[in-house]
Amino acid sequence: MVSTRPDISIVIKALNEERHIAGAIESALAALAGFDGEVILADSASTDRTIEIAARYPIKIVRLNSIADRSCGVGVQLGYQYSRGRFVCLIDGDMRLHRDFLAAAIRFLQDNRDYAGVGGAIIECEADNLEYVKRASARDADRLPGTVDQLDCGGVYRREAIEAAGYLGDRNLHSREELELGVRLRALGWKLARIDTPGIDHYGHSGNAYALLLRRWRTRIAFGSSEVLRATAGRDGFWLALRKMGRELGLLAGVHVWWLALIVVPFVTPTPIGGIAAALALGLLPFVVMSAKCRSVHLGIYSVTAWNVYAAGLWPGLASRRVDPAAWIDSTIIRDAGSADSRAAIG
């Protein structure tokens, strides 16, 4: 029987992205030139004009039925469960896909059968928010060309590999879903790569970085690391996840030790004034050290504040309830459009 699968499905996951969604969709449609493909918007019950704007384009739009189901992982899996392509490209609603990336990615996967997925160069376009300034200046091995452990900011995946791994995104994860997917794939013997070709432009959240940290707590994004440990516990990928997050978990454990020291120090010093002075010095120490390391007081203060938020998130993440990540996600097709419509729209 001849397969009727399109070459590629581009899944755009979004939540309240009215500012960027038109650019994301237009970039996806443009990238499909020369391919038999489809674009799917996986919307996590947006309350702004995201769906209204997206409905202007010849794409499939699917919407999460319950706000309570929102998570980064659910957006990934929601789009995947409606996709049909032999390859699946994943981007966020605040990204723009580079036109030539799909061809380079698929060519790489066709030439390298042991690789499950490939990403391109990530171009951070938010220059004001401290979170993205810090991220752009970091030398993260997973963002450099070569074999990597995970595909941050999406990429192109081979459906064959995703089917072997069971699902694309774990709906229980409020962040770190790329890491958990990478762990599952690598546990099965697959590899992941990043190629030296521009993949996406990322327009992250603008505005105050501390407001973003607060939002990450409210939306449980800050719980992601411990949720990954919970997801991989008792499975082949647990030690891969633990090794991957070892430095991060060590840092967050250090924050807990720091908290304990701040509580204990005033009670073990000879005088009350000495105890207060010692506690103040200990409290300021990480801020001073990080400010010197980052060569910026603002980045130093933000870094330590972020550590505290993510350290506090370890416990609710470990205690969170899990549901079957492969189960069908309750959702509605808002608009359906086939690959032929997409090809016609982009000429």
Tell me the β content. Answer: 15-25%
Could you report the average pLDDT, rounded to the nearest whole number?
91
Total strands: 10
CATH topology description of the largest domain: Spore Coat Polysaccharide Biosynthesis Protein SpsA, Chain A
Tally of separate domains: 2
Count of individual helical segments: 15
First CA to last CA: what distance? 30 Å
Q: What is the share of helical residues? A: 40-55%
Return the CATH architecture of the largest domain: Alpha-Beta Complex
Q: Name the CATH superfamily classification of the largest domain.
A: Spore Coat Polysaccharide Biosynthesis Protein SpsA, Chain A
Largest sheet: 10 strands, mixed
Structural features, described:
- It is a single chain.
- This protein has two domains: 8-208 and 328-345, Spore Coat Polysaccharide Biosynthesis Protein SpsA, Chain A (Alpha-Beta Complex); 243-319, no CATH class.
- It is built from 15 helices and ten strands.
- By secondary structure, it is α/β, with parallel strands linked by helices.
- The longest helix has 23 residues, at 246-268.
- It starts with 7 loop residues before the first strand and ends with a helix.
- Helices cover 47% and strands 18% of the residues.
- Strands 1, 2, 3, 4, 5, 6, 7, 8, 9 and 10 form a ten-stranded mixed β-sheet that branches.
- α2 links the parallel β2 and β3.
- It has helices at residues 21-31, 50-54, 72-81, 101-111, 130-137, 159-165, 177-187, 209-218, 224-232, 238-244, 246-268, 272-294, 297-312, 314-319, 339-345; strands at 8-14, 37-43, 60-64, 87-92, 95-97, 115-124, 146-148, 155-158, 191-202, 331-335.
